[in-house]
Amino acid sequence: MIITLAGGGSTFTPGIVKSIALRKDELEVDEIRLYDINEERQRKIGVLVDWILHQDLGLDITLTVTTDPVVAFTDADFIFAQMRVGGYAMREQDEKIPLRHGCVGQETCGCGGLAYGMRTIFPMVELIDTVERYAKPTYWILNYSNPAAIVSEACRRLRPNARIINICDMPIAIIDVVAAALGVKKQDIAYDYFGLNHFGWFTSIEVNGHEALPELRAYIKEHEILMPEAFLKDKAALIKSAASTEQQADGDQPEQNRHTKGSWYYVWKGVYEIMELFPEYLPNTYLNYYLQQKEFVEHSDPTHTRANEVEETRERNLFDGIDRYERTGEIDESVFYAGSHGDWIADLAIALKNDTKARFLVITQNRGALPNMPYDAMVEVPAYIGKKGPEVIAQDPIPLFQQGLMMQQLNSEKLLVEGAIEGSYEKVLQAFALNKTVPSIKVAKEILDDMIEANKDFWPELK
Question: Is 169 an annotated catalytic residue?
Answer without folding.
Answer: yes
